[in-house]
Amino acid sequence: MRKAQRFLGTAFVLVLLALMAFPARAEERLRMSTTTSTENSGLLAVLLPPFEKKFGCKVDVVAVGTGKALKLGEAGDVDVVFVHARKLEDKFVAGGFGVNRRDVMYNDFVLLGPREDPAGVAKTIGAPDAFRAIAAQGSPFVSRGDESGTHQKEKEIWASAGIAPRGAWYVEAGQGMGEVIMMATQKRGYTLSDRGTYIAFRKKTDLVVVREGDKNLWNPYGIIAVNPKKHAHVKYDLSMKLVDFFAGPEGRSLIAGYKLDGEPLFFVFREGEKY
Amino acid sequence: MDFLVSSFAAALRMIGDLSPDVFDAVRTSLSVAAGATVFAALLGVPVGLLVGLSEFPLKRLVVTLLNTLMAVPTVVVGLFVYGFLSRQGPLGVMGLLFTPTAIVIGGTMLAAPIVANYALASVRGADPRIVPTALTLGADRFRAVATLAGEIRFGILAAVIAGFGRVVSEIGVAMMLGGNIRGYTRTMTTAIALETSKGEFAFGMALGIVLMLVALVVNLFLNLLQRR
């Protein structure tokens, strides 16, 4: 009967392994959708553990583009969203999907390009003018093309430049910020990036910041609890604890103190300050 | 070349350190793949035996369908299951989206057709006299099929191995249904995609090497079972 024993042994091992996929749920899990740039910045690894410890819960982070992050909130697949696309956020709240939006922090966008600057962006004034120069020259421009917060911002700037970008020079990647920076590096092209991802990638790319500091390159982040009236199953109380934690003194000091390569990545709003 | 070599060296160092992140991803990958394999075997083996042994009008069509299901892209399966598991979907109340269980469900749908096809192929390759002989020797229908299954057990084991391979190596289902949540639904493949997207090639490569090693160990283990 050795054959039968062996068979039973295999089945046993497989089932044992399979059981590990269904862990005992000791603690409450809160589900938060956020953007890939937020996750890639490393900030959440600093910000979430103190919260999890304080409230004895686990925060599951689903990192996708801003558009998708908000859609997950609309569908009720997450309890709270943490994103950076002010207009879409306002629409999300106005549509009754989210409540109690709070400003958390901001960083800014930078226009990256090759050091040689073939489109002569350095000679332009303001971000829309820089975009016009790139289009006029037909230099490669890599767009996120994924409805992310960064993509929304890029489309805003194209709109204020009065240009509908189209053509072989305009590359729609449909990927995350990191991939897009690497793609722009390979293509010797331009791209719009959030500063955090750029700093994280500075060692891996030879693109430089060719435009920064304009007011229309600001990038404010907001946290919104999913409306329990729309989705009765969401963990609203725990979501609000997270909202208060992020926007409150503890979260603000953690965010302000977070540095990458010695540079702060995010800036907190002063008390009462609004974007 | 330099870049490849230095990434590879860094990858080996990381495996040596065995960070908890790597360990979590390996554990999640193995457990969801094993779970999916168990369910896929429970579904696929009987279907393969049934289709292989019986004659019915639309048999060719059913076989073609089973073959086609093997080629369905993982993201399509992911999308389909996503529609069911999202809160807006029919099974939304169960709250399964972005859990390991969701990956197991998607993985089962990926692996079951493969297991069924392999089982079907080994039935076809078996001596056609086995079932009639068992029947004339006084076995009932169920015992006769069990005898056949015993004879083609290596084919069935191969079917299960192939199913495991499909689930452990795919990324579409794990990414869409699991959501790549750190320490919870992050598998080896989604971790590799994430690390690559962050530009951490060495870490991605380290995970790739671990994935291959794990596949090797699993197959060595199953090979051991195949020895008479």
Model description:
The complex is a heterodimer of chains A (275) and B (228). Chain A has 275 residues and is an alpha/beta fold. Chain A has eleven helices and twelve strands. In chain A, helix 6 (127-137) packs across helix 7. Chain B has 228 residues and is mostly helical. Chain B has a single domain, classed as MetI-like (MetI-like fold), CATH 1.10.3720.10. In chain B, 78% of the residues lie in helices and 0% in strands. Chain B is built from eleven helices and no strands. The longest helix of chain B is centred in the N-terminal third of the chain and has 34 residues, at 20-53. The chains are: A alpha/beta (275), B mainly alpha (228). Chain A binds chain B through residues 3, 6-7, 9-10, 14-15, 17-23, 29, 31, 36, 40, 58, 60-63, 75-77, 175-176, 178-179, 181-182, 200-201, 204, 231, 233, and chain B through 27-28, 30-32, 34-35, 37-38, 86-88, 92-93, 95, 97-98, 100-101, 103-104, 153, 179-182, 184-185, 196-199, 222, 225.
Topology record:
The complex is a heterodimer of chains A (275) and B (228).
Chain A lengths: L1 H18 L8 E8 H6 L2 H12 L1 E8 L1 H10 L4 E4 L2 H9 L3 E16 L13 H11 L3 E3 L5 H13 L8 E3 L4 H11 L3 E4 H7 L6 E4 L6 E9 L9 H12 L1 H9 L1 E2 L2 E2 L2 E2 L7
Parallel strand pairs in A: 1-2, 1-3, 5-6
Antiparallel strand pairs in A: 3-9, 4-7, 4-8, 4-9, 4-12, 10-11
Helix pairs in contact in A: 6-7, 10-11
Chain B lengths: L1 H16 L2 H34 L5 H12 L3 H12 L14 H26 L4 H7 L4 H11 L1 H17 L2 H7 L9 H10 L3 H26 L2
